[in-house]
Write a structure and sequence with these properties.
alpha/beta, five-stranded mixed sheet, 8 helices
């Protein structure tokens, strides 16, 4: 199936170049799918691609500790056969029989890389405190997700990770309508993110992206990978995987 390389093979307006990066490898390819959390176009993109392709691994921008919770969410479907909670991440799990891997921080490799960079760059102590504070929050959230997955009813959401976002577009709207709304939303959010960029966020996100790229490179040694990541990570990951 040439869909790994050519998004137009799907004939779906939600699956196009701005949200789709093909990264070939010696053993397996990585297909990066950019998503906007909970957006109907992103959920539809993930489901359509995974209904068509058969990757060895589906990699999700989630910490490994959160995967069991999203597996539980993937079993609870609404009247449209979409998972009720977890957006595009639980939708990806529900749509595939492939192995599922969480590739995001926190992890030991992320922490080692982050501390090494902070020391090498002689980062001011005030910035270090803010970086580590954000990492600590992410770690607590990941552990809460792991705990929630052990409960008989994990529908009590893991605050900060599975909070639902509402948009002025629905899952039963035409794909073209979903795609147009998503593009408009991304344009506005991208401008806002650029205006509010800070050093702590830059250090954290660049380190996250480096670790995710390493993980994806290791996964594609075993076969093709479809990776579901935030749309703002697409270009950094694609650039790193091309090296």
């Amino acid at each position: 199936m040439d869909g790994y390389e050519h998004p137009d093979a799907f004939d779906d307006p939600r699956i196009s170049a701005p949200f789709y990066r093909h990264c070939p490898g010696d053993d397996g390819d990585v297909l990066l799918l950019g998503v906007v959390h909970d957006h109907p176009a992103s959920v539809g993109r993930v489901e359509t691609v995974l209904d068509t392709l058969e990757p060895t691994t589906v990699a999700l921008e989630l910490p490994s500790a959160a995967i069991p919770l999203y597996r539980a969410y993937a079993t609870r479907l609404d009247e449209h056969d979409h998972p009720r909670t977890g957006g595009e991440m639980s939708a990806a799990i529900a749509a595939t029989d492939a192995d599922v891997a969480g590739i995001d921080a926190p992890s030991w490799s992320f922490l080692r890389r982050l501390v090494t960079r902070l020391v090498a760059d002689r980062v001011p102590l005030s910035t270090v405190r803010r970086v580590l504070s954000s990492v600590g929050g992410a770690t607590r959230t990941a552990l809460a997700c792991r705990l929630a997955a052990t409960m008989s009813d994990p529908s009590s959401r893991c605050v900060g990770v599975t909070d639902t976002v509402d948009y002025d577009v629905a899952v039963d709207d035409p794909p073209a309508t979903q795609a147009a709304h998503e593009r408009s939303h991304v344009s506005g959010v991208t401008a806002l993110l650029r205006a509010t960029e800070t050093d702590p966020k830059r250090y954290r996100d660049e380190t996250r992206e480096a670790c995710m790229a390493d993980h994806l490179d290791a996964l594609r040694a075993d076969g093709d990978v479809v990776a579901v990541v935030g749309v703002d990570h697409l270009d950094p990951l694609a650039d790193a995987l091309a090296r």
